[in-house]
Design brief:
386 residues, alpha/beta, Alpha/beta knot, Trp Operon Repressor, Chain A, 3 domains, 5-stranded parallel beta sheet, 23% strand, binds S-adenosylmethionine
Length: 386
C-alpha cells in the first residue's frame, strides 16, 4: 500500500519512521511519502491560503496547490482522504475498508478548511472520503491522518506479528470492547490477577473474558450493544469475520430460492466465494441472528451515493425453516434503525420475480422506483427516512 500526505507541516509525520509503521516500511509492506503543499505554489511567499468569499473570520486554503498536487500524485485506483470535522466518523469498520485500498492520499486541512471546489474536483478523478476523527475540532488534519494511518496499516496482512491479536481486541468481537488484560506479577500492590486467568482452564478463561467484555461495553459504551432483540429476547448482533462461512452457506440457500423465483442463475450473490463474503463483511455493516448457536438470519447496510445520504440495504437472508416467521421484517426494521444520522433515504434491490420479498418491502413503506437504474432482472425500491 502506498500512502501520500499533503500538508503544510511535513515534520508532523516524523512518527511514521518509528515503531511498527517504520518496520512495515522497511519490510516493503507500505510506502510513506510526505509532501509539502507549499511546493505546489508558484508565488514568492508560497501562499496556500486566502480570505473567505462572503467574509468571516479566518483564512481558507486556496484550490490551486491542491489541484497541482493531485495532478502529480493521484492515479487510477487512488483514494483521496480529506480529514475534516464534517466527515464521516472514523471507526474500525472504516479502517478495515480503507485497508483494502492500494493507494491513499491524505489531504490535511489547516485554517478554516479547504476551498469546497477542491473536494468537488477530487471526486472527478478519484474515490474521495471525508473523514472525521471525532466530534471536536483540531488545529489541522495531520493528527487525524496519522490516527487513520495507524488504524489502517496495522490491518494489512503481515503487518502484525500475531494476527490473532486483531481478532481479540476492542471493536472486533461483535463490536464489544476488549476485556481487561493482566501480566506478571500475580499480585501487585495488593491487587490480584483474577484467579480464573491462572486456572489453566481455557474454556473458563474464554467465558470470563466474554462476560467482562459485555459488562464493560454495557457500562462504558451501551450504544455499541445490540439495539434490537427479537420478541423472544434473541439479540441481533454485529457479524464478525468468524461468521463468514455460515453466512456463505445461508446466502447459497437463500439465493438458490431467488434463482428459482426469477428463473435465472445470473445472480451475483449466488456465485460468491468465501473470500468474497470475507471482503464484504469488512465493508458492510452486517447483523446476524443466532438460534441455538446456528446462524439463521442476516442483513447488511452501507452508505451510498456521492453525498453518503443513502443507506443501501441488502442480503436480507432467513434460513429456509424460519421463512414466513416475520424474521425478515424484523431485520429490515433493524437495519434501518442502525443507519447513520446522515442517512435521508433507504434503497434496496430485489429480483423482479421475487414477489414475496417485494410484498414485504412495500408493507414496510418502500415503493418501486422504475425511474432508477437496477441490475438486469432486478427492481429497485426506496423509502424516505421519517
Ligand atoms: N472551520 C472548520 C470547521 O468548523 O469544520 C474547522 C477547521 S480546523 C481548525 C482545520 C483543519 O483541521 C480542518 O480542515 C481539518 O483538516 C482538521 N480537523 C479539525 N478537526 C478535525 C477532526 N475532528 N477530524 C479530522 N480532521 C479535523
Amino acid at each position: 500500500m502506498r500512502l501520500d500526505y499533503l500538508t503544510i507541516f511535513p515534520d508532523f509525520f516524523a512518527p511514521l519512521d518509528l515503531s511498527l509503521p517504520g518496520k512495515a516500511a522497511d519490510k516493503g509492506l507500505v510506502e510513506f511519502h510526505v509532501h509539502d503543499l507549499r511546493s505546489y505554489t508558484h508565488d514568492k511567499h508560497h501562499r496556500v491560503d486566502d480570505t473567505p468569499y462572503g467574509g468571516g473570520a479566518g483564512m481558507v486554503m486556496k484550490p490551486e496547490p491542491w489541484g497541482e498536487a493531485f495532478d502529480e500524485l493521484t492515479r487510477p485506483g487512488s483514494t483521496i482522504i480529506f480529514t475534516t470535522p464534517s466527515g464521516e466518523p472514523f471507526d474500525q469498520r472504516l479502517a478495515a475498508d480503507l485497508a483494502t485500498r492500494e493507494h491513499l492520499v491524505f489531504a490535511c486541512g489547516r485554517y478554516e478548511g479547504i476551498d469546497q471546489r477542491v473536494m468537488e474536483h477530487a471526486r472527478e478523478r478519484a474515490e474521495v472520503r471525508e473523514i472525521s476523527l471525532g466530534d471536536y475540532v483540531l488545529n489541522g488534519g495531520e493528527v487525524a491522518a496519522l490516527a487513520v494511518t495507524e488504524a489502517v496499516v496495522r490491518l494489512l496482512p503481515g503487518f502484525m506479528g500475531n494476527a490473532q491479536s486483531l481478532v481479540e481486541e476492542s471493536h472486533a468481537d461483535g463490536g464489544l470492547l476488549e476485556y481487561p488484560v493482566y501480566t506478571k506479577p500475580p499480585e501487585w500492590r495488593g491487587h490480584q490477577v483474577p484467579a480464573v486467568l491462572r486456572s489453566g482452564d481455557h474454556g473458563k478463561v474464554e467465558r470470563w473474558r466474554h462476560d467482562q467484555a459485555v459488562r464493560r461495553t454495557a457500562e462504558r459504551r451501551p450504544d455499541l450493544l445490540s439495539p434490537s432483540t427479537l420478541d423472544d429476547g434473541t439479540p441481533i448482533v454485529r457479524a464478525t469475520q468468524g461468521d463468514a462461512a455460515e453466512l456463505l452457506t445461508l446466502q447459497r440457500a437463500c439465493w438458490v430460492q431467488e434463482a428459482l423465483a426469477n428463473d435465472s442463475l445470473d445472480i451475483p450473490a449466488l456465485h460468491e466465494s468465501l473470500d468474497d463474503v470475507r471482503t464484504w463483511l469488512g465493508v458492510w455493516d452486517t447483523w446476524v441472528v443466532r438460534r441455538a448457536g446456528r446462524l439463521v438470519a442476516a442483513v447488511r447496510g452501507r452508505l451510498e451515493g456521492p453525498d453518503q445520504t443513502a443507506w443501501d440495504i441488502g442480503r436480507i437472508m432467513v434460513a429456509p425453516d424460519l421463512q414466513g416467521s416475520g424474521l425478515g421484517r424484523v431485520l429490515l426494521d433493524h437495519i434501518q434503525s442502525v443507519a447513520p444520522a446522515t442517512v435521508t433515504w433507504y434503497v434496496l434491490f430485489t429480483g423482479a420475480g421475487s414477489v414475496r420479498n417485494q410484498r414485504m418491502y412495500k408493507k414496510a413503506g418502500f415503493r418501486l422506483r422504475p425511474d432508477l437504474d437496477a441490475p438486469a432482472g432486478a427492481v429497485v425500491l426506496t423509502k424516505r427516512r421519517a
